[in-house]
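Hi P.,

Sorry for the delay on this. The queue was packed all week, but I finally got your sequence through. Input first:
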Amino acid sequence: MADTLRALTFERRSRGRLLSWAVIGFVTAGNCIAWTQNPPQVDAAPSVLPQGSPVSLHMSGFAPNSRVVLQLDGATVPNTYNTYTNFQGTVDRKITIPAGLQNGVHRIVVGDLYGHNAQAPITVQGNCGAPTIQLFNSIRTPVAPATRWQSQAQTGNALLRQ
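Then the structure:
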């Protein structure tokens, strides 16, 4: 039996207006059916953000009705285990960038159980790191209650540590 390519078009309408569409191709070879569609894609918005901020992900081109795994720099993103695509292979999800993530470019990688993968870069910037304040002699400044003072007996200076 020869291979046959068949295409199905899915449309989503509301009040007669076309909201979205997808073309999925099926290749039949004997008794086997394999599906194809647009390549997987992940869009992150915003793509530049400070640590601890939410980022919205739009994922498309994955297997329909399948679980996808979300990773940030190779580690699975917490609380995303039950993320599934719809019948068109798309899903939208919001995640929060960890508060301890360093400045720079990081990768969000998404994959389904059928080997379809896509990635999106995000840039974390604006993080200053832990502050260090040194007070000299007997000058006093207001400090947060969580700080502690350590005096240095030899110089008479005080060092604030967090």
